[in-house]
């Protein structure tokens, strides 16, 4: 009985179990790799928040620079030729 049962289990695992596991994780990988509408909305919101924070920081640096002529910002000034609002 054991001589018949073991090969059946091995063949079942090779031809049914292994492809099932592979296709399951391939499907999970493909669905996880796409952005949902909620993800896109969250990214747009984060972009807008980052842009507003950048503008606030630039305003604060201008105010400090006006009060203190020796002030040097710790970060480089944003370049004017780069358009942050450009959507790809």
UniProtKB/TrEMBL annotation:
Keyword terms of this UniProt record: Membrane, Transmembrane, Transmembrane helix
Q: Give the stretches traversing the membrane.
A: 6-26
Q: Name one GO biological process term.
A: phage shock
Segments carrying the region annotation (Disordered) are 69-88
Give the superkingdom in one word: Bacteria
- Which protein, by its recorded name, is this? Envelope stress response membrane protein PspB
Give the organism the record lists.
Answer: Sphingobium phenoxybenzoativorans
* Gene this protein is translated from: pspB
